[in-house]
Amino acid sequence: MDLTLSRFVAALRNAEVRVSPAETLDGLDVLRKIGIHDPHLLRSALSLTLAKSREEKRRFEECFERFFVELAFRSPVKRSFFKSLNRDQALADLAERLSGKTHAAVAEVFHNDRAGLAVRVEAAAQLGGIDEMRSLRDKPHYAALILKDLGAPEIDALLADEDAALDRDTAHALRYVRHYLRQEIHEFVNTRYRLTVDASGKKAILDAALTGNLTHIPPEYYADVQRVVEKLAHQLAKGHKRRRRRARRGVLDIKRTLRGNMGYDAALFKLEWRRRKTEKATVFAICDVSGSVSRVARFLLLLLYNLTDVLPQVRSFAFSNRLGEVTDLFRSQPVEVAIEEVLFTWGKGNTDYGHAFLDLRELCLNDIDHRSTVIILGDARNNYYDPHPERLKEIALRAKQVLWLNPEEREDWGEGDSEMPRYAPHCFRVSRCNSLSDLERFADSLIMTQR
């Protein structure tokens, strides 16, 4: 019971049901008192003990079904494949051609003994270490191990052997056994994968999306990626706060320390540390929100507005052809709501960077000074309009630095209507930015420059 409950709790946690160690002990006490003979009573008792919210109870129900029902061979054997077969005679014939373990598995399929097959599969899975499965790529490995234990390779070899001289009905039934075993084993491994690795069924796809190009992330994964970005921002902010505290106390001010301890006969009771005077800086985030660039803009804005503890002043602007400031929208709305409204309102029209820089100059050129960092996110594709690089140059001469993030690959910069080569000379740094790791590196370096 202890092992079963610990495995079930691990499955619940994988399904994002929060179960504490104390609640696990409570669940074990419940399990010992009511036993496992009444599934409905067990489900209700454990649900009351381990699941708190309505959403957690829904996930508990799904996880309970997958965990406690018979995991293997849930589909019945199709009897039509054995209608014209003398099963006893066929099994006697196969006993001479197959090993005992393989013959037993074939006999259980012939007689639709799914309980026996399920026990056999569970034993083979535990022997193969299926609980160590960690990724989507592990599934074929464990399926192959279980199929080998049930004798699938022997069945393949027998069916491929032309000298075996199997009669037609036996060969027909044996082909169905092979198909049935493969189908059910793969379904069993899929179920175990969802229990131990990926309860939602989309973790592998999400992991691939996070390590790949942000412009290819489907909309149904935005909420998942948002949670990842928020955790990333929290980690970045926490790390930089720690470094900032260390830097503040890490340099001893000798003169102030000696002066402050003169009353103690120069014994150093009170230490004085050098304090660096920091000037408040403003980050101007200018985002092209048209086309595929809008997906990267979504996550850049999300990251910036989750770093407000270390980037206290962020002013945001969005454009496709005309540019407008959206800072107040982020102050009055939750960040995810503000992003959706920005993309909907400003993501229409043909992209015109030259006109956007003109609008930026009229809106806030006097506010940009030697403490300002200007971030531009865009692919620099200008639809063959006049790019007016001199307008960006004017902004760059006033700012501390201009950083350009381009989601396209470097070899595409300058191809077609891309004006990146004309804008790049006026930027302190131009970086490719189309993955979460790119955003993380950029945010880390940006925070360092604001210290």
Summarize the structure in words:
- This protein folds into three domains: 67 residues; 123 residues, no CATH class; 172 residues, von Willebrand factor, type A domain (Rossmann fold).
- The protein has 20 helices and six strands.
- The chain is elongated, with a radius of gyration of 32 Å.
- Helix content is 56%, strand content 7%.
- By secondary structure, the protein is an alpha/beta fold.
- The chain starts with a helix and ends with a helix.
- It has a six-stranded mixed beta sheet with strand order 3-2-1-4-5-6, with helices on both faces.
- The model has no long low-confidence stretch (mean pLDDT 84).
- α5 runs antiparallel to α6.
Provide the structure class: alpha/beta
Distance between the termini: 55 Å
CATH fold field value of the largest domain:
Rossmann fold
Total beta strand runs: 6
- At CATH level 2, the architecture of the largest domain is 3-Layer(aba) Sandwich
Label the overall shape: elongated
Helix content: 55-70%
Q: In percent, how much strand structure appears in the residues? A: 5-15%
Strand order in the largest sheet: 3-2-1-4-5-6
**Annotated CATH homologous superfamily of the largest domain:** von Willebrand factor, type A domain
The helix tally amounts to 20
* Uncertain spans: none
Radius of gyration: 32 Å
* Main sheet: strands, sense, barrel: 6 strands, mixed
According to CATH, what is the class of the largest domain? Alpha Beta
**How many separate domains?**
3
